[in-house]
């Protein structure tokens, strides 16, 4: 597999999805005015996408393991681009909502493949560097998104922000489908449709429940019931959707938990910080974006430095330290009003999140066999979709008590997950590819990771 092309494709896929989310936020007020939509309808342009993505990520990863990550990546990119073009031409808000759901389906096909391709192209002990490049690109997209979206909406209208995706989709989606290299190793593991349906219902209900206003108790209850049925089914089926060697690994479980906690804390904090900057301090959106710019800058720098930290300290110490740094950043913001204090708080947030993203993702992806890399990528992406939904929902519920108490609660969330990092591998687990206790060595052959 061509490594430079694979890395470029992985970065392009991640950036397209990241940009789409940030520019939509900027475009929503203009969209609402032009299409005469209600606030509830505008909210569903985001909720419909999130529910579709979160529901299908893991099963999409399984499809990539079965039929080839490159093929799923190509289908996902082209479908995402086609849905984006359709949204740009939509005559009404109902069409926008429906096509955002379609876009979410193709986004679910695309996202796990961006990680699965990296796992197939790079040996386990060299994964940290491409993951760092990918994370840094996401950080740049997060910083550029509001600026690009604002410029496009101001100059060309809200529809332009969706047409931007079309060129990237064609540039990377078509080569991925037309590439005639060596086909993937056949994988005869059953797809487990019942498990896929149960997981989709569980995750979809969970995301809907926490994004609904007010929180939907019925959806939460249904998610709990289907989760219990899913656990029972996965334990009994011969070919589970969630391979025990992936989901049963203490290191993978800890890494997923940390990702959920830090992403919930980050996005909940950004939600509260936007309220503080614009409502309390009276800043306009552009000035607010400038105040938060250190977050994106430090996210890029920390991602670039993380591979060296992993080699020197291991995933355990690196992740625990970065999680604590992120919690400290939220604490600083809880009492900040001056520009310098705000910049320091946002910088700590970016440094912590960028480092955790690379370190935890590296643990999740490298611990999976190549034939389960898509599922591992789907789990990582699921954590990064559920975390923000939970964080924003929690921040919304806590904000009436004041931004200070809300931010203190959001700081406690990652702080409580610092001990979980003890389950991650130490320095030896990063610099070598030897057998570890939760990775049994196949009989008659060396350990594989």
UniProtKB/TrEMBL annotation:
The chain crosses the membrane at residues 43-60, 72-97, 131-154, 160-179, 215-231, 252-277, 289-310, 317-334, 340-360. It is found in: Cell membrane. Residues 6-429 form the Major facilitator superfamily (MFS) profile domain. Residues 430-449 are annotated as: Disordered. It holds the Pfam family MFS_1. Keywords: Antibiotic resistance, Membrane, Transmembrane, Transmembrane helix. The keyword tRNA processing does not apply. PROSITE patterns: MFS (PS50850). It is a multi-pass membrane protein. SUPFAM superfamilies: MFS general substrate transporter. This is Antiseptic resistance protein.
